[in-house]
Amino acid sequence: MQIPASFDYVRASTVDDALALLDRHGPESRVVAGGHSLLPMMKLRLARPEWLIDINELYELDYVLRDGNTLRVGAMTRHATLLASPEIFRLFPIVADAERVIADPTVRNRGTIGGSLCQADPAEDLSTVCKVLRAEAVIRGPGGERVLSMDDFHRGAYETAVAHNELLCEVRFPIRPRSGSAYEKVERRVGDWAVVAAGAAISLAADGTMDDVAIGLTAVGVAGTVTEAEDLLRGRHPQEDLFLEAGRLAALASKPIADQRGPIDYKRHLADELTRRVLRRAAARAAEAQEG
Amino acid sequence: MQISMSINGTDITEEIEPRVLLVHFIRDQLRLTGTHWGCDTSNCGTCVVLMDGQPVKSCTVLAAMADGHSITTVEGLATGAVLDPVQQGFMEEHGLQCGFCTPGMMLTARALLDQNPHPDDGEIREAISGQMCRCTGYATIVRSVQWAAAHPAVPEELAENAGEEVTA
């Protein structure tokens, strides 16, 4: 039987309340959102917070709303809510692609976008999605609010820029005209982590060339995006031979390790193949997209 | 700490340690052993209960997090001696063999039918994709849920029979 070590539990009612509690209880306190990463770690005693601050009542952080050319998503928005959002589906199909394969439907009822990003697991899907969409993280703390790019937000495996007395409150996605995006993951079974996954976003200029391209890989040790492949594609028209070369470059940039999910060669092959597939889909979606 | 919640429509207040998981609270403290405890890692789904009508894996929810919420366990599906159509469907279509996954499967099915009264087989398979039947009886589970969808109210003659079996 797996039971967490003892802790004290307190429920926060607002963001300010949560920040005050974090400040009062210090570095040995942790916030819990959906709990589907933290509670398993506490059961295995990989995490032993002395205080658990439950933020599930921060309904003020559960929203998807458009604000000019930005889509703002509250950190407590559940995976199930993101998957059901017509606005997300229309503007950022990559999010819907990824959400369909994150954990399973029951876990998606609890897990949140903020929790996924803060867990910063190297095999976590939304981290790649947010990088590819050039999203920003809005963090609040005693000193006020700061807004970070995903590159600055992610410090490494299981490590983010969020300090112990801060809270990730919002993720901001820039809305671009004539853009499309896609995500594809190979997993051994429903609910497992990715063997490898890839995500891509493409914005088209008026002449049909690729204004901006972002390519991300999950679970193969690539911290940022695959800039070598992005540079190759930028300014060119979407076409198959370019996507083939981009796939090859993505596989080269990947640094997979051999584990129970597969050997290195297989994972490199997947990085190549999945990159090509998401580029094709993202380009097709960009071609169909309206002004945004 | 003290927590209060509605369990199968009954309001309860209990004293717990904050680290107690909802599944153990339900089984060991409330003695509602219909909720099963399986993998302990939120993979198998036999511990699924409904929290405010949504399926959740109770091995990965603290009892403290359920404070103030409404929980439905498999014991709350039937109305008196009348089985929920999902329960009747599992009987009619042989939806269980060993029965270990059954409580979680039935609660997920109930939540699915509440949202989508006429799911296709793919939607049923998607809904239960976070749950495992180690007898591998998925085909009959899907048929059982389809039976429930086709019989939103259990026919009277079956309801009476079911009542006898439940009380026997």
- Radius of gyration of chain A from CA coordinates: 19 Å
Number of strands of chain A: 13
Topology, number of strands of chain B: 5
In CATH, the architecture of the largest domain in chain A is: 2-Layer Sandwich
Protein name (chain A): Xanthine dehydrogenase family protein subunit M
Organism (chain A): Cryobacterium cryoconiti
GO molecular function, one term (chain A): FAD binding
Domain FAD-binding PCMH-type (chain A): 2-178
Quick structural gist:
The complex is a heterodimer of chains A (292) and B (168). Chain A is built from twelve helices and 13 strands. Chain A is α+β, with helices and mostly antiparallel strands and 292 residues long.
Provide the descriptors you would attach to this structure in a database record:
heterodimer, A: 292 residues, alpha+beta, Uridine Diphospho-n-acetylenolpyruvylglucosamine Reductase, domain 2, Uridine Diphospho-n-acetylenolpyruvylglucosamine Reductase, domain 3, Enolase-like, domain 1, 3 domains, five-stranded antiparallel β-sheet, three-stranded parallel β-sheet, 12 helices, 36% helix, globular, B: 168 residues, Ubiquitin-like (UB roll), DNA polymerase, domain 1, 2 domains, five-stranded mixed β-sheet, 5 strands, 14% strand, CO_DH_flav_C (chain A), Diverse_Substr_Oxidored (chain A), Mopterin_DH_FAD-bd (chain A), oxidoreductase activity (chain A)
Give an overview in words:
The complex is a heterodimer of chains A (292) and B (168). With 292 residues, chain A is an alpha+beta fold. Chain A folds into 3 domains: 8-54, Uridine Diphospho-n-acetylenolpyruvylglucosamine Reductase, domain 2, CATH 3.30.43; 59-174, Uridine Diphospho-n-acetylenolpyruvylglucosamine Reductase, domain 3 (2-Layer Sandwich), CATH 3.30.465; 179-288, CO dehydrogenase flavoprotein, C-terminal domain (Enolase-like, domain 1, 2-Layer Sandwich). Chain A is 36% helix and 26% strand. In chain A, the strands form 4 sheets. Chain A has a 5-stranded antiparallel beta sheet. In chain A, strands 1-3-2 form a 3-stranded parallel beta sheet, covered by helices on one side. A 3-stranded antiparallel beta sheet of chain A has the order 11-12-13, sandwiched between helices. In chain A, helix 11 (240-253) packs antiparallel against helix 12 (264-288). Chain A is globular and about 60 Å long. In chain A, 52% of the residues are buried. The mean pLDDT of chain A is 96. Chain B is of the alpha+beta class and 168 residues long. Chain B has 2 domains: 2-76, Roll (Ubiquitin-like (UB roll)); 85-163, DNA polymerase, domain 1 (Orthogonal Bundle). Chain B has 6 helices and 5 strands, in the order ββαβββααααα. Chain B has a 5-stranded mixed beta sheet, covered by helices on one side. In chain B, helix 2 crosses helix 5 and helix 3 crosses helix 5. The longest helix of chain B has 14 residues, at 102-115. The relative contact order of chain B is 0.16. The mean pLDDT of chain B is 94. Chains A and B meet through strand 1, helix 2 and helix 6 of A and strand 4 of B. Chain A: This is Xanthine dehydrogenase family protein subunit M. Chain A: Residues 2-178 form the FAD-binding PCMH-type domain. Chain A: InterPro entries: CO_DH_flav_C, CO_DH_flav_C_dom_sf, Diverse_Substr_Oxidored, FAD-bd_PCMH, FAD-bd_PCMH-like_sf, FAD-bd_PCMH_sub1, FAD-bd_PCMH_sub2, Mopterin_DH_FAD-bd.
